[in-house]
Every structure is written in structure tokens, then in C-alpha cells.
Amino acid sequence: MGSGASRDFGPEKARWRTEDRPAANHKCPISSEMPYRAIKTNIAESLNIILQIERRPGMRFVSEVLEIRGYEPEADRYDLYQVYGQSLGKCGP
Predict the structure, then answer these.
(1) Phi, psi of 39 (to 5 degrees)
(2) Where are the domains of the chain?
(3) pTM, to two decimals
């Protein structure tokens, strides 16, 4: 369960769901006190890749692989590089 998997969402939605999860977890009192950007920085430092797996009738396949190179707090965005995907260039270096 700790995979950060997101059902029927793209990698962008999965990232936001992962960021919101610590704040929504009432068992983790520290998360409610952490600044939002600190959570994002921690995610970027903890994860190396985002793997998007799509479901099709009778099968699953990897549709996109993003490398997380870091988080830019000034711009409030992740530095991503698309390693593999059906729409190469979408996230670019």
C-alpha cells in the first residue's frame, strides 16, 4: 500500500495525491506542522522516479516514466525529466 499508487490518474495527479497524503494522515502529528514546501522538498529527495501504469482490458502497461531531479521552491514546481512515455517532451528536462 505504501507505493503512492493512484488509480486512474496521470503522474501529475499522483504527485498531488502523494503530497496531500501526509497532511491528511491524522496519525502523523508532525505533518500538520510541516510547511507545504518542506513536504514537497522531502518528496523530491525521497523519490527517484514516478511510474505511470495504465490499465487496459485484460492487461496493464507502463505508459510513462518520470525522473524526479528535485524541487524548485521558488517556482513551486518539481524538476522532472520524462525518461519514457507516449508523449515524449511533455515534461522535458
Answers:
(1) -65, -45
(2) 11-85
(3) 0.58
